[in-house]
Structures are given as C-alpha cells and as structure tokens.
Amino acid sequence: MKVGMIGLGRTGEGMSRRMIEKGIEVWGYSSTNYENACGQYEARYISGCVTSIEYLVHRQSNLIVLDILVPEKFLVSSKSHSQK
Q1: pTM for the model
Q2: Is the Cβ–Cβ distance between 63 and 57 less than 8 Å?
Q3: Residue 61 near residue 49 (C-beta atoms within 8 A)
Q4: Which of 12, 50, 54, 71 qualifies as a cystine partner to 8, CB 3.0-4.6 A?
C-alpha cells in the first residue's frame, strides 16, 4: 500500500511513523517546510518527500492521499494529559 501524507506536522509525522512501522510506503508533502519533510525522509519517518501535491497525486500510482488538519487548540501533550 502507498499513502500520500499532506501535512507533516505533529499529527502527520506521528501517523507516518506508525504506518512506516507497519510496512506501509508513505510519501510526504509539507506546504510550509520542505526541509522538514526531507529531514523526516532522512530519519526514515517517510519513504519519500515531494515538492507539490500535483506530483504526489499524479505521479504515484495506487496511492491513497490523506490530508490531516487538527487545530492546535485540540492538541494535548501526553505530559499534560496524564497529569489530569
């Protein structure tokens, strides 16, 4: 299976890492920080990174594309969550 992850922030990176651990090929795109995406590739958190959504969608065959957006106000760190 191939997955295209649009957004490689806290949520996207976490999801990508879990999919990679399960043997799923994950291609990442970050609209704001290509260098961060390259760093995630070098750390093996994603299988590859691309510079555009068009490339992600049109150049990769049999790809499932995910675009995840979680507003920051809904994010809870594990430390603050465990203290409640």
Answers
A1: 0.72
A2: yes
A3: no
A4: 12
